[in-house]
Amino acid sequence: MMLTRVLRALERAMIAAGGIWVYVPPLPPLDGPGPGHPESVARGGPLSAAERDLDRALFGECE
């Protein structure tokens, strides 16, 4: 009788542990806003005057 209780408790504990274990794969590192995002800009093009001012204000001298 005691063994039955222990085995049932163990069974419930294993079911609960299996139910809460969920594999979440690691996300790839973000390189910027995703495609179609309103804040994404073309890379490699010249900066506008406003972008140059913001770059200077945030990082100092721009390229």
Automatic annotation (TrEMBL):
It holds the Pfam family DUF6059. InterPro entries: DUF6059. This is DUF6059 family protein.
